[in-house]
Amino acid sequence: MGADVALAVFCAVGITAGVILSLKMDEASLITLGGSEAKLALAAEGSWLRLFWGSFSGAFALLAAAFVLGFCAVAQPLEMLLMAFRGLGLGVCIRGIYLGSGVFRSMAVFLPFAVFSTAILWLTSREALAMSSRYLEISKTNENRLGLKNEVRDYITRFMIYAMLLAVLSCADAYLARAVSGL
Hints:
The N and C termini lie far apart (42 Å). By secondary structure, the chain is mostly helical. Helix 6 packs antiparallel against helix 7 (148-181). It contains 7 helices and no strands.
């Protein structure tokens, strides 16, 4: 339970820091960083692939970073900072959305994907923390490492499932943006 609480705290601190940092930013830049207006414009044009890729690519980059960090025995602080970085981006985007026009439409397009993709990142970070802690534990002892092969296989399988979930979520996000843009 300690890792779950730490990941949640780091995400919350990141969101708070993002909002605080955004106070010194230009309003037009914040609205652009929020991305909801551009997303709605793309949805109105019918650019499904660009909508999907816009949602999937950023979240997948964080998922891939968590995956790689899981193979490092001393990467636990970086895995926590990854959640803080996600929170930082969310904080900046949320403030940009509130400054833009059509706040309710923008929030309807932004929040579902932001919440669910952050949950997926939280799960992947938890997996990465467990794997890197396992590597740290093994590196401190002369323990038999034969069981690690199975753990690595399971770790890779879980990350593939998370990547597929993220792809499905990105498709749903593109569909939602299209539906909201028609309102």
